[in-house]
Amino acid sequence: MITVRNLTKRYGDVVAVNDVSFKIAKGEVVGFLGPNGAGKSTTMRIITGFIGADSGVVEIDGRSIAADPTLAKSKIGYLPENNPLYEDMTVVAYLDFVGEMRGLEPAARAAAIRRCVGLYGLREVAAKDIGELSKGYRQRVGLAQAALSDPPILILDEPTSGLDPNQIVEIRNLIKEIGAARTVVLSTHNLAEVEATCSRVLIISGGRMVADDTPRALQERAAAEMLHVRVRGAGDIAAGLGRAAGVRRVRADGHEPDDWRRYTLAVDAAADAAVHVFDACVANGWKLSELRKEETKLEDVFAQLTRG
C-alpha cells in the first residue's frame, strides 16, 4: 500500500531524512517512532505529498506520488501534528468544507459527515464552534476530517499529544477501530500506545531507519534481559551464577533472614540463561526459591536503538 525507497530530505546542511526505505502492506497498523528531530514528521509530510523529497520514491497503492499526486493524495487521510482547524466554524460546517475541498458531491458529503460524526463521537458537539471544544474533541474532529472521504490510508502524526490519560484511551480506542479497516501509520512518543495498537514498529534516529519489526520481536532482540534470583547455599554464589552460560553480569541485592540471598543477573536474551542458572544451582547444591525473568520493555529497546 505504501512503498518508500531511498528517501532523502535536506534543510541546508542538515539531513533530516537520510536514505530511508520501507514498505507498509494493506491493513497494517504501523507505529513510527523516533526521538525529537529524528525525521518522523518530515517523512510523514513527504509520504502525504505535503512537501517534496530531494531524492527517493514514494508510491501509494503502486502509483508514484510525484508522478500522479492527485490520485495518490486521494487515497490518504492526514492528521498533522498541529491539527490545524478553523476555530470559528462549527464541527459540521468544518467537515462540510473539508468534504467540498476533497471533491465530494453534496449527497456523499452529507453521508460522510453523518458517518464520521457518529464514528468519532461528535454528535454532542456537532453544532458547536470548534474553538469551544476541549483538546480531546478537537483531536476527534481532526481524525474525522482525515477519514471523511473514507481513504484506505490514514497518516496520524502525534494524535494523542497534549491529551489527558482518559482522552488518550479514547483516541487509542478510536485508532483501533480505524485500523480494523484501513492502513494506519501512527507517529507517537507514547510507547504504551504503540504496544496497544500497532502490529509493527518502524524506528528512525538521526534521519535513518534503525529498526523495522513487531513490538514483540524488538523486545526479544534487545541486548539483554534481567533475571531475579533468590538462592541459599555455601560457597561463592555470585561467582557460580556468573559462570552460567548466557550470564553477563551479577549484582548482589542483599541478604535476607535464614541466609537467603538475592541477585540480579543481566543475561543474553537468546541464550536461555534461566535454564543454565537453574542447572548451576542444582550442580552446587544451592536451594533456589525464585527465578524470575524481567522482560525487556519497548522503552528499553527504543533507548538502545536511538541512544547517541
Characterize the quaternary organization of these chains: single chain
Total number of helices: 11
Helix content: 25-40%
**What CATH first level of the largest domain would be assigned?**
Alpha Beta
Main sheet makeup: 6 strands, mixed
Distance between the termini: 33 Å
Instruction: Give the mean pLDDT.
Output: 90
Output the strand order for the largest sheet: 6-7-8-3-9-10
CATH architecture field of the largest domain = 3-Layer(aba) Sandwich
Regions with little confidence, pLDDT below 50 for 5+ residues: none
Query: What's the helix-strand series?
Result: EEEHEEHEHHHEHEHEEHEHEEHEH
Alpha-beta classification = alpha/beta
Mind telling me the CATH superfamily name of the largest domain?
P-loop containing nucleotide triphosphate hydrolases
DSSP, total strands:
14
- Domains (count): 2
Report the principal-axis shape: elongated
List keywords for this structure.
2 domains, 14 strands, alpha/beta, 308 residues, Alpha-Beta Plaits, four-stranded antiparallel sheet
Brief rundown of the structure:
The chain has helices at 40-47, 69-74, 91-101, 106-119, 135-147, 165-179, 191-197, 215-220, 237-242, 273-284, 298-306; strands at 2-11, 14-24, 29-33, 55-60, 63-64, 76-79, 153-157, 183-187, 200-205, 208-213, 224-232, 247-255, 261-268, 287-294.
